[in-house]
Design goal:
With 332 residues, this protein is α/β, with parallel strands linked by helices. The chain has 13 helices and twelve strands. 39% of the residues lie in helices and 24% in strands. It starts with a strand and ends with a helix. It has a seven-stranded mixed β-sheet with strand order 8-7-9-10-6-11-12, sandwiched between helices. A three-stranded antiparallel β-sheet has the order 3-4-5. Strands 1-2 form a two-stranded antiparallel ribbon.
Length: 332
Protein backbone atom coordinates (compact mmCIF):
# COMPACT_ATOMS: atom_id res chain seq x y z
CA UNK A 1 0.00 0.00 0.00
CA UNK A 2 1.33 3.45 -0.95
CA UNK A 3 0.02 6.82 0.18
CA UNK A 4 0.08 9.09 -2.88
CA UNK A 5 -0.89 12.75 -2.39
CA UNK A 6 -2.44 11.78 0.92
CA UNK A 7 -4.57 8.92 -0.46
CA UNK A 8 -3.92 5.22 0.32
CA UNK A 9 -3.65 3.24 -2.92
CA UNK A 10 -3.42 -0.55 -3.26
CA UNK A 11 -0.57 -1.65 -5.52
CA UNK A 12 -2.37 -4.45 -7.34
CA UNK A 13 0.52 -5.18 -9.73
CA UNK A 14 2.65 -6.44 -6.83
CA UNK A 15 2.12 -9.69 -4.92
CA UNK A 16 0.67 -9.43 -1.38
CA UNK A 17 3.20 -8.91 1.42
CA UNK A 18 3.32 -11.89 3.79
CA UNK A 19 4.42 -12.02 7.44
CA UNK A 20 7.56 -13.81 6.22
CA UNK A 21 8.27 -10.94 3.80
CA UNK A 22 7.93 -8.44 6.64
CA UNK A 23 10.35 -10.39 8.83
CA UNK A 24 12.90 -10.38 5.98
CA UNK A 25 12.50 -6.64 5.34
CA UNK A 26 12.80 -5.94 9.06
CA UNK A 27 16.07 -7.91 9.20
CA UNK A 28 17.47 -6.01 6.20
CA UNK A 29 16.77 -2.46 7.39
CA UNK A 30 17.59 -2.74 11.11
CA UNK A 31 20.68 -3.22 13.22
CA UNK A 32 20.99 -5.85 15.95
CA UNK A 33 20.53 -3.14 18.58
CA UNK A 34 17.36 -1.86 16.88
CA UNK A 35 15.93 -5.38 16.71
CA UNK A 36 16.56 -5.87 20.43
CA UNK A 37 14.86 -2.55 21.16
CA UNK A 38 11.80 -3.66 19.18
CA UNK A 39 11.65 -7.04 20.94
CA UNK A 40 11.79 -5.24 24.27
CA UNK A 41 9.39 -2.36 23.57
CA UNK A 42 7.34 -3.63 20.58
CA UNK A 43 7.77 -0.12 19.04
CA UNK A 44 10.61 1.29 16.93
CA UNK A 45 11.35 4.57 15.15
CA UNK A 46 14.47 5.01 13.02
CA UNK A 47 15.84 6.41 9.76
CA UNK A 48 17.04 4.23 6.88
CA UNK A 49 18.97 5.22 3.76
CA UNK A 50 19.10 3.61 0.32
CA UNK A 51 22.22 5.07 -1.38
CA UNK A 52 21.36 6.98 -4.54
CA UNK A 53 17.61 6.77 -3.89
CA UNK A 54 16.33 8.42 -0.70
CA UNK A 55 16.16 8.28 3.06
CA UNK A 56 13.16 6.90 4.89
CA UNK A 57 11.61 7.57 8.27
CA UNK A 58 10.54 4.13 9.48
CA UNK A 59 8.08 3.08 12.16
CA UNK A 60 7.60 -0.52 13.23
CA UNK A 61 4.85 -1.71 15.55
CA UNK A 62 3.22 -4.94 16.63
CA UNK A 63 -0.39 -5.66 15.63
CA UNK A 64 -2.29 -8.90 16.25
CA UNK A 65 0.96 -10.73 16.87
CA UNK A 66 2.67 -9.62 13.65
CA UNK A 67 4.71 -6.63 12.53
CA UNK A 68 3.50 -3.59 10.62
CA UNK A 69 6.03 -1.32 8.89
CA UNK A 70 5.52 2.22 7.59
CA UNK A 71 8.18 3.96 5.46
CA UNK A 72 7.96 7.73 4.91
CA UNK A 73 10.16 9.11 2.13
CA UNK A 74 12.66 11.85 3.04
CA UNK A 75 14.46 13.20 -0.06
CA UNK A 76 18.26 13.54 0.04
CA UNK A 77 18.00 17.14 -1.13
CA UNK A 78 16.77 19.78 1.32
CA UNK A 79 13.87 21.76 -0.22
CA UNK A 80 13.93 25.54 -0.47
CA UNK A 81 11.25 27.92 0.76
CA UNK A 82 10.42 28.87 -2.83
CA UNK A 83 10.26 25.26 -4.05
CA UNK A 84 7.68 24.42 -1.39
CA UNK A 85 5.79 27.68 -2.06
CA UNK A 86 5.99 28.62 1.60
CA UNK A 87 5.00 32.13 2.72
CA UNK A 88 7.85 34.56 2.00
CA UNK A 89 7.75 35.75 5.61
CA UNK A 90 9.47 32.44 6.51
CA UNK A 91 12.69 33.92 5.09
CA UNK A 92 12.44 36.88 7.42
CA UNK A 93 11.49 34.85 10.49
CA UNK A 94 14.33 32.35 10.27
CA UNK A 95 16.93 35.14 10.16
CA UNK A 96 15.76 36.57 13.49
CA UNK A 97 18.57 36.55 16.07
CA UNK A 98 16.51 35.19 18.96
CA UNK A 99 13.03 34.12 20.05
CA UNK A 100 10.67 31.16 19.67
CA UNK A 101 9.18 30.10 16.31
CA UNK A 102 6.68 27.23 16.27
CA UNK A 103 5.56 25.17 13.27
CA UNK A 104 2.38 23.25 14.02
CA UNK A 105 -0.11 20.96 12.34
CA UNK A 106 -1.36 17.37 12.38
CA UNK A 107 0.88 14.42 11.58
CA UNK A 108 1.74 14.32 7.88
CA UNK A 109 1.00 18.00 7.25
CA UNK A 110 4.56 18.79 6.15
CA UNK A 111 6.00 20.35 9.31
CA UNK A 112 9.40 18.66 8.85
CA UNK A 113 9.70 19.91 5.27
CA UNK A 114 8.81 23.47 6.31
CA UNK A 115 11.39 23.42 9.12
CA UNK A 116 14.02 21.97 6.78
CA UNK A 117 13.42 24.67 4.16
CA UNK A 118 13.74 27.40 6.79
CA UNK A 119 16.95 25.91 8.21
CA UNK A 120 18.31 25.61 4.66
CA UNK A 121 17.59 29.32 4.10
CA UNK A 122 19.44 30.22 7.30
CA UNK A 123 22.32 27.95 6.26
CA UNK A 124 22.64 29.83 2.97
CA UNK A 125 22.28 33.37 4.33
CA UNK A 126 23.90 33.74 7.75
CA UNK A 127 26.71 32.37 9.88
CA UNK A 128 25.21 30.51 12.85
CA UNK A 129 25.90 27.47 14.97
CA UNK A 130 22.74 25.33 14.67
CA UNK A 131 21.93 22.28 16.79
CA UNK A 132 18.98 20.06 15.85
CA UNK A 133 17.40 17.42 18.09
CA UNK A 134 15.27 15.01 16.05
CA UNK A 135 13.36 11.74 16.44
CA UNK A 136 14.69 10.42 14.11
CA UNK A 137 16.95 12.61 11.96
CA UNK A 138 15.16 13.21 8.65
CA UNK A 139 16.77 15.74 6.29
CA UNK A 140 20.58 15.72 6.25
CA UNK A 141 22.22 19.16 6.02
CA UNK A 142 25.59 20.08 4.54
CA UNK A 143 27.37 22.96 6.24
CA UNK A 144 27.27 26.06 4.03
CA UNK A 145 27.54 29.30 5.97
CA UNK A 146 26.37 27.56 9.15
CA UNK A 147 27.72 24.76 11.31
CA UNK A 148 24.86 22.27 11.76
CA UNK A 149 25.04 19.57 14.44
CA UNK A 150 22.25 16.97 14.20
CA UNK A 151 21.39 14.76 17.18
CA UNK A 152 19.21 11.68 16.92
CA UNK A 153 16.92 10.82 19.85
CA UNK A 154 17.92 7.35 20.99
CA UNK A 155 21.32 7.11 19.26
CA UNK A 156 22.83 10.49 20.20
CA UNK A 157 20.75 11.55 23.21
CA UNK A 158 18.18 10.09 25.58
CA UNK A 159 15.56 12.86 25.65
CA UNK A 160 14.64 16.17 24.05
CA UNK A 161 14.81 17.99 27.39
CA UNK A 162 18.26 16.64 28.31
CA UNK A 163 19.60 17.35 24.81
CA UNK A 164 18.26 20.91 25.01
CA UNK A 165 20.02 21.60 28.30
CA UNK A 166 23.33 20.30 26.97
CA UNK A 167 22.86 22.09 23.63
CA UNK A 168 22.90 25.40 25.52
CA UNK A 169 26.47 24.59 26.62
CA UNK A 170 27.58 23.97 23.03
CA UNK A 171 27.65 27.65 22.02
CA UNK A 172 24.56 27.52 19.75
CA UNK A 173 22.92 30.42 17.95
CA UNK A 174 19.86 28.41 16.90
CA UNK A 175 18.32 25.23 18.33
CA UNK A 176 15.78 23.08 16.47
CA UNK A 177 13.56 20.83 18.61
CA UNK A 178 11.92 18.13 16.52
CA UNK A 179 8.95 17.82 18.88
CA UNK A 180 7.95 19.81 21.95
CA UNK A 181 5.92 17.11 23.63
CA UNK A 182 6.39 17.48 27.39
CA UNK A 183 6.73 20.01 30.22
CA UNK A 184 10.52 19.73 30.56
CA UNK A 185 11.14 20.24 26.82
CA UNK A 186 8.74 23.20 26.53
CA UNK A 187 10.10 24.82 29.69
CA UNK A 188 13.71 24.49 28.54
CA UNK A 189 12.85 25.76 25.03
CA UNK A 190 11.28 28.91 26.50
CA UNK A 191 14.32 29.40 28.74
CA UNK A 192 16.65 28.99 25.74
CA UNK A 193 14.71 31.65 23.82
CA UNK A 194 14.83 33.92 26.86
CA UNK A 195 18.61 33.66 27.05
CA UNK A 196 19.13 34.98 23.53
CA UNK A 197 18.85 31.90 21.28
CA UNK A 198 16.63 31.32 18.25
CA UNK A 199 14.53 28.24 19.00
CA UNK A 200 12.40 26.39 16.42
CA UNK A 201 10.00 23.69 17.49
CA UNK A 202 6.95 21.71 16.35
CA UNK A 203 3.67 20.82 18.05
CA UNK A 204 0.71 18.76 16.88
CA UNK A 205 -1.76 21.62 17.24
CA UNK A 206 -4.04 22.93 14.50
CA UNK A 207 -3.96 26.71 14.96
CA UNK A 208 -2.19 29.54 16.78
CA UNK A 209 -4.70 29.91 19.61
CA UNK A 210 -4.66 26.20 20.40
CA UNK A 211 -0.85 26.23 20.32
CA UNK A 212 -0.62 29.03 22.89
CA UNK A 213 -3.20 27.31 25.11
CA UNK A 214 -1.37 23.96 24.84
CA UNK A 215 1.93 25.47 25.94
CA UNK A 216 0.41 27.30 28.90
CA UNK A 217 -1.86 24.43 29.99
CA UNK A 218 1.00 21.95 30.23
CA UNK A 219 2.40 23.89 33.20
CA UNK A 220 1.01 23.52 36.74
CA UNK A 221 -1.71 26.07 37.51
CA UNK A 222 0.50 28.05 39.88
CA UNK A 223 3.11 28.64 37.15
CA UNK A 224 0.77 29.59 34.31
CA UNK A 225 0.71 33.33 34.96
CA UNK A 226 4.52 33.46 34.83
CA UNK A 227 4.58 31.29 31.70
CA UNK A 228 2.12 33.60 29.91
CA UNK A 229 4.48 36.50 30.63
CA UNK A 230 7.54 34.56 29.46
CA UNK A 231 5.83 33.27 26.31
CA UNK A 232 4.54 36.75 25.41
CA UNK A 233 8.13 38.02 25.54
CA UNK A 234 9.88 35.25 23.56
CA UNK A 235 7.34 34.12 20.95
CA UNK A 236 8.09 35.43 17.45
CA UNK A 237 5.67 33.50 15.26
CA UNK A 238 3.39 30.46 15.01
CA UNK A 239 2.94 28.84 11.59
CA UNK A 240 0.06 26.34 11.53
CA UNK A 241 -0.22 24.34 8.34
CA UNK A 242 -2.51 21.94 6.52
CA UNK A 243 -1.87 20.04 3.27
CA UNK A 244 -4.53 20.20 0.58
CA UNK A 245 -4.73 18.30 -2.75
CA UNK A 246 -3.93 20.47 -5.77
CA UNK A 247 -6.21 20.52 -8.77
CA UNK A 248 -4.40 18.28 -11.27
CA UNK A 249 -2.34 16.36 -8.68
CA UNK A 250 0.16 16.99 -5.93
CA UNK A 251 -0.44 18.88 -2.70
CA UNK A 252 0.10 22.39 -1.36
CA UNK A 253 0.33 23.72 2.18
CA UNK A 254 -2.03 26.39 3.49
CA UNK A 255 -0.64 28.41 6.41
CA UNK A 256 -2.14 30.23 9.34
CA UNK A 257 0.44 32.85 10.33
CA UNK A 258 0.56 34.53 13.73
CA UNK A 259 3.27 37.16 14.15
CA UNK A 260 4.06 38.35 17.67
CA UNK A 261 2.95 41.95 17.29
CA UNK A 262 2.47 44.16 20.35
CA UNK A 263 -1.26 43.41 20.27
CA UNK A 264 -0.68 39.62 20.15
CA UNK A 265 1.86 39.77 23.00
CA UNK A 266 -0.64 41.72 25.11
CA UNK A 267 -3.40 39.17 24.45
CA UNK A 268 -1.14 36.30 25.55
CA UNK A 269 -0.08 38.18 28.68
CA UNK A 270 -3.66 39.15 29.56
CA UNK A 271 -5.09 35.64 29.01
CA UNK A 272 -7.24 36.70 26.04
CA UNK A 273 -6.09 33.99 23.63
CA UNK A 274 -9.56 33.72 22.06
CA UNK A 275 -9.06 37.19 20.53
CA UNK A 276 -5.93 36.22 18.57
CA UNK A 277 -7.83 35.03 15.43
CA UNK A 278 -9.51 38.46 15.14
CA UNK A 279 -6.12 40.17 15.31
CA UNK A 280 -4.77 37.86 12.59
CA UNK A 281 -7.74 38.54 10.30
CA UNK A 282 -7.16 42.29 10.52
CA UNK A 283 -3.35 42.29 10.34
CA UNK A 284 -2.55 41.16 6.81
CA UNK A 285 -0.19 44.15 6.44
CA UNK A 286 1.97 42.56 9.17
CA UNK A 287 2.05 39.23 7.32
CA UNK A 288 -0.65 37.55 9.41
CA UNK A 289 -3.55 35.42 8.18
CA UNK A 290 -5.94 32.78 9.48
CA UNK A 291 -6.01 29.30 7.97
CA UNK A 292 -9.41 30.03 6.41
CA UNK A 293 -8.00 33.15 4.73
CA UNK A 294 -5.11 31.09 3.35
CA UNK A 295 -7.43 28.36 2.09
CA UNK A 296 -9.78 30.91 0.51
CA UNK A 297 -6.85 32.41 -1.39
CA UNK A 298 -5.92 28.98 -2.77
CA UNK A 299 -9.50 28.51 -3.99
CA UNK A 300 -9.53 31.97 -5.60
CA UNK A 301 -6.27 31.16 -7.40
CA UNK A 302 -7.82 27.90 -8.65
CA UNK A 303 -5.15 25.80 -6.94
CA UNK A 304 -7.53 23.74 -4.77
CA UNK A 305 -11.22 22.94 -5.16
CA UNK A 306 -13.90 24.42 -2.94
CA UNK A 307 -14.81 20.88 -1.84
CA UNK A 308 -11.30 20.20 -0.51
CA UNK A 309 -11.14 23.66 1.05
CA UNK A 310 -14.35 23.02 2.99
CA UNK A 311 -12.87 19.82 4.47
CA UNK A 312 -9.93 21.73 6.00
CA UNK A 313 -11.82 24.85 7.05
CA UNK A 314 -12.55 25.45 10.74
CA UNK A 315 -15.78 27.19 9.68
CA UNK A 316 -16.91 25.92 6.23
CA UNK A 317 -20.09 28.00 6.17
CA UNK A 318 -18.18 31.24 6.84
CA UNK A 319 -15.55 30.30 4.27
CA UNK A 320 -18.18 29.72 1.57
CA UNK A 321 -19.92 33.02 2.37
CA UNK A 322 -16.60 34.86 2.23
CA UNK A 323 -15.75 33.40 -1.18
CA UNK A 324 -19.25 34.10 -2.49
CA UNK A 325 -19.12 37.71 -1.24
CA UNK A 326 -15.74 38.33 -2.85
CA UNK A 327 -16.90 36.73 -6.12
CA UNK A 328 -19.95 39.01 -6.23
CA UNK A 329 -17.80 42.05 -5.40
CA UNK A 330 -15.41 41.17 -8.24
CA UNK A 331 -18.29 40.69 -10.68
CA UNK A 332 -19.83 44.01 -9.67
Amino acid sequence: MLRIDGVLMVQEDWPPVTAKDLDWVFEQVTTQEQRLTFLRELELDFAYSVPGLARFRVNVLQQRGTMSLAFRVVPFGVPSIDELELPQICKELILKPRGLILVTGPTGSGKSSTMAAMINHLNENDRRNIITIEDPIEFLYRDKKCIIVQRDLGDDTKSFATALIHALRHDPDAIVVGEMRDLDTISTAIMAAETGHLVLGTLHTTDASQTVDRIIDIFPHGQQRQVRLQLSQVIEAILSQALLPRIGGGRIAAFEIMIASTAVRNLIREQKIFEIPSIMQLSSKDGMQTLDQAIAELVRRNIVTLEEAMKESSNPERLQKSLQFQSEATTF
